[in-house]
Amino acid sequence: MNLNLPLYSILACVVWVGYGCAAPRVQAPPPQLQACPAEIPGGARCYGGEDGRGAFYRIAIPANWDKQVLVMHAHGGPADTGPAKAERSEEDLKRWAVTVKAGYAWAGSSYRRGGYGVTMAAEDTERLRQIFVQHFGAARRTLLHGQSYGGGVASKAAEIYATAAGQRGPYDGVLLTNSVFGGGQLAYTFRLDLRAVYQYVCKNHPKPDEVQYPLWQGLPMDATLTRAELQSRIDDCTGVRKPAAQRSAQQAANLSTITRVVNIREQSLIGHLNFATWLFRDLTQLRLGNRNPFDNSTAVYSGSPNDAALNAGVLRYKADPQAVAELAKDSAPDGRVNVPTLTLHAANDPTAFVELESAYRDVRERAGTGHLLMQTFTDESEHSYLAEAQYPAMFTALLDWVNKGDKPTPQKVLALCRGYEATYGKGCRIQPDYRSPPLSSRVTPR
Description:
Elements: E1 14-16, E2 19-22, E3 32-34, E4 45-50, E5 56-61, E6 69-74, H1 86-95, H2 97-101, E7 105-109, H3 118-136, E8 141-147, H4 149-160, E9 173-177, H5 184-202, H6 227-238, H7 249-262, H8 269-287, H9 307-313, H10 321-331, E10 341-346, H11 356-366, E11 373-378, H12 390-404, H13 410-424
Parallel strand pairs: 6-7, 6-8, 8-9, 9-10, 10-11
Antiparallel strand pairs: 1-2, 3-4, 4-5, 5-7
Helix pairs in contact: 3-4, 5-7, 5-8, 6-7, 12-13
């Protein structure tokens, strides 16, 4: 079976144990009891295994699982583009130990491979849920939690496995934190802008004496460039890893132009260029048959010392309609989520722009499911993990909505969070009156 193309699943939806569309069952070895990481509270039972399709997983069940709530976790990324690694799910269990501390069972898949594939990751997450039910029994409630790229995975999974034709779906509620919404084209096109603007300014990725390739490819498949080498090139041009006072005047000017035009922070420049290099290579060449889903042919860039020269000289690319369609089928949400959905997003997230929340809100409202969405924002500037007390507050609010029909407000989540600070530490940063700006205010329109 070709696991590279097309991006979306080539497996048909099947009905399984009273649910609607579910990931096909496969034979998998039973979960093996393993030592829990030190971050997991004492008395918990931890398990690990392989799901029969190449994905590794970890499961943790609290010592007193009286809540009978399972949280399925969809992890972020997809920075790693190689084979699946067991260490991935181990790292996720450590990071999200707060879930087990709060009394919920937790299960997370590594996904069957690295690289891009939203529907694939949704299938792998659902397959792990089936493994959990087979060996530990059905939970009273099952929540789906997606973080970063995993937020896009979870929002897609909530659509694929939604309640249909009177059948209960596998997930009772969805929590999406610092999520990359909207599908690959909407969420990643700004990284093509970054590659084009960076190359116009720096002219070293690729260098003039290297093979010249379309920047949407990320990097030729046979290229040997390393992340450390790319960091050096970026630093040579912008001085981004140096204190501001140690940058040359030209480096400071270059850095200012790139970050102003693309509207990103200095500290996220290297990370975004890494994604626009190795992830773009994976996405365009391995998943989309060397076709381009990104378009900057009509983008009008601004913020440089000479915008006319920039727009005249920057490299331009048109998207391939087939690539656009395949990427949308794999990753773009349609909004048909019929269970309560909460989001939590840092307003100053340097990686997943908070403006993506507005794009997702628009999708849900167009689909007629906006009433099942409640968005919450904090004034934090982190991406991977926010103040810990906010997570049990979000889970509690979501379960109240699921169990009692009590749709929360940001004010309620803030009050719940403050109640959890004694256990999880200070740091509730929720801003009840904040509303995310439109994505067009952040990303160059076209």
